[in-house]
Amino acid sequence: MFQVFKKLDWFFKRYWKSYVFAIVALIIASAIGLIPPKLVGFAIDKIQFETLTMKLLVTLIAGYLVLIVVHYAISFLWDYTLFSGAAKLERLSRTRLMDHFLTMTPTFFGKFRTGDLMARSTNDLRSIQLTAGFGVLTLVDSSIFMIMIIVVMGFTISWPLTLAALIPLPIMAVVMNKYGGTIHKRFMEAQTAFGDMNNEVLESIRGVRVIRAFVQERQDEKRFAKMTDDVYQKNIEVAKIDALFEPTMKILVGLSYTTGLGYGALLVFENRITLGDLVTFNVYLGMLIWPMFAVGELINIMQRGNASLDRVNETLDYEADVKNPVSPKLVKQIESLEYDHISFTYPETEVKRLDDIYLDVKRGQTIGIVGKTGAGKTTLFKLLLRQYPGVQGKIKISGIDLNDINLEHIRSWIGYVPQDQMMFSKSIRENIQFGKADATDQEIYRVMDLAYFINDMKQLPQGLDTQVGESGVTLSGGQKQRVALARAFIKDPEILILDDSLSAVDGKTESKIIEHLRKERQNKTTFIAAHRLSAVTHADHIIVLEDGKIMEQGTHNELVASGGWYKEQYNQQQLENEEV
């Protein structure tokens, strides 16, 4: 049950001073809380034997008030220190998770779905925080505070009465242990179901246009209703065990009260304890209710926290497939880029996506990459971005193996515009500034002109401050592509990759953008992958991929003259354009 504390030892070692202070303050506050019942019992005995004077009464009341003030001050200190420490744990864990996500490769995100990762970053972290705060409180109260009460009851009143009142404790230990094992299992199932539901919601929001287009609203509602019902049922199973804790504790506490009152009255009649002692004993017994409840709460919280921590640690323990080199080499300037007989197979498949690719690119060249769908164009770029391990052959930048260069340096050189443009739920200005955080409006307007987006922006209600919505839902496909292009242009990267990034714009807009590219990208390397061959006719070198192999290569004129797939496709597209 206490494994969760061992798993969190890195945090407790870091903030041990705060926790020691909080626990010591809590123990002192608990000890102070044991004094008032003795004062009450003392006063009752004085009243019974008619020896209570006004001076003594005033002294007792004054002492009681002082104890209240001191108890309040110390309680504030331990409460603030303990629960602020738990909040730090949640903050640190969330930061660790976010840092971990940013270092992960596509393999990781293929294994863990977004909704489940969100559940681990929210609900599970909240359970862990509860463990580091309320869990520590219940641990101290269910052990040290309980022992303090029992010792005081035994030594100052009667050990036989104390032991008789504590008979239900062993029963409680057995029952609570059984409850704890069950709640751990059910809570894990409930959290997994919650993650699945989160993922379904995200997919529905992202795909709302497709859902409406295919009139799938009712079916989506049914799917969601089924998932929410599953989450509800699993949480009900957790709640059933939760609901057993309190009544079980009340029964056991009731037995203690009954024993204490009955046996205590007998001891009073036998003059073995005074009436004041019996009153004090019952007050202590009332105080013992919370520590006994705390045992149940402790088991509940520990099991929930342990289950959540296991899920979070499973995520954090997943090692990145691609890591920085131990002794990185420095590349001052990119003079060349070479794919030296590259072959690659995705981890989850056995089919080669690239097969013996050789490509030598000089600084300032524009490279066109064309081919059928699934030919390997995007894979070629993903390997340059070092998104996957297991590459056969070498990719070299200025003669240095890509694996010997820091990932941050590699990606800082590259401006990548993928097939599926990612728009953040911010303004157009903020989306473009993602490429350059301190970009001025003048710079933004310039790259928007390069991306042929100025006219579109004038029609938007708030110009640069227009919010694009979830994943750019308020923009058309062509507008999203051009905002993504502007975001890459403003970075002014050494290597610009356009992965079929002009597919959603018309031919006239495409030609304007290409014309701007040719002027702006002098002395810098550009890769353009496209299905429309008009996007690559100006390239210095064009390769045609088929099943991961280079089947043709050369300039546009050379490929047309060779009479292969490129010429056939080019003629067909030209004919289609004439018909249009």
Automatic annotation (TrEMBL):
Membrane topology label: Multi-pass membrane protein
Residue ranges of the TM segments: 20-44, 56-78, 130-151, 157-176, 251-269, 281-301
Keyword Nucleus recorded: no
SMART domains assigned to the protein according to its UniProt record, in alphabetical order: AAA
Protein name per the record: Multidrug ABC transporter permease/ATP-binding protein
A family per Pfam: ABC_tran
Molecular-function annotations in GO: ABC-type oligopeptide transporter activity; ATP binding; ATP hydrolysis activity
Biological source species: Virgibacillus necropolis
